[in-house]
Amino acid sequence: MTPALFTEQDYLSAVENQWCHGCGNFGILRALKRSLVELQIAPYQLLMVSGIGQAGKFPHYLKCNLFNGLHGRAVPAATGAKLVNPELTVITVGGDGDGYGEGGNHFMHGLLRNTDMTYLVPDNRVYALTKGQASPTSDNGFVTKTTPGGSGESLNPLAIAIAANAPFVARGYAGDTEHLSTIISAAIQHKGFALVDILQPCVSFNHVDTWEFYQKRVYNLDAEKDYNRADRVNAFQRSLEWGDRIPTGIFHQIQRPLPQELLPVLQGEPLIKRPLDPHKIAPLLEELL
């Protein structure tokens, strides 16, 4: 067997890790590295784009190209990069607060636009970096310093994504890195916008959705041989399942046209390789003066 060209060592960053001991992000980082090795993605071919938060630190702990942007604005930045240089493998990462709170509008339009990227959302159901406020996915009635009477209705990102006919919708669990790595690999290989919501306990600020809580409830949807990922109605029904049993795996997967298939200007040679001629935009600039 030919040895792998890239190993996990090739993705190691020199940046000191700042996550809390026991944080679910460690399992996600382990699963992601395993996927990168499996798919043999060169560090120089990988672009990680993130917003703000504990999950936003992911690109710092990998050797790759990275863009660390504004809170909730990772998806549009990643979209621009992928459209200009489609040869890059683009992985966007942001927590439930960054992705579904500040970035909720970009999340929705990312699903609809279907740019070819993988969107990892480590979902600890709390704002961890800012010391434990309720997030969009916090349980209904979740008590924090900002919600002393309990938080409101919990947002279901998978149901929203499937309702929007997102082409790839999945959920992973940080406590099962082998299954999570399989999901991430499938998401990266999928052509289109791939959402991977990842359940990950926050040991510091969320004492409801704990490791023990998930270990008793999560089950592998991918193990069901008769499950049809193209069945949108069934996928939506499964996305609503939360309680004694919580499904993980790929809920919905279809093919939809990519932006470059719909926009003539993006067809052909990548924009990054095309010569720049300032004279072509001169008439446009004159109109604005």
Terminus-to-terminus distance: 63 Å
Give the second-level CATH assignment, the architecture: 3-Layer(aba) Sandwich
Helix content: 25-40%
Q: How many separate domains? A: 1
The structural class is alpha/beta
Q: What's the count of strands?
A: 8
The quaternary state of the protein chains shown equals: single chain
What is the string of helix and strand elements?
HEEHEHHEHEHEHEHEHH
pLDDT < 50 runs, ≥5 residues: none
Care to describe what's here?
This protein is an alpha/beta fold and 289 residues long. It has a single domain, classed as Rossmann fold (3-Layer(aba) Sandwich), CATH 3.40.50.970. Helices cover 30% and strands 16% of the residues. It contains ten helices and eight strands. It has helices at 25-39, 74-84, 96-102, 104-113, 157-163, 177-189, 211-215, 232-239, 259-262, 282-288; strands at 46-50, 65-68, 89-93, 117-123, 168-173, 193-199, 218-220, 246-253. An eight-stranded mixed β-sheet has the order 2-1-3-4-6-5-8-7, with helices on both faces. It is globular. The relative contact order is 0.13. The model has no long low-confidence stretch (mean pLDDT 94).
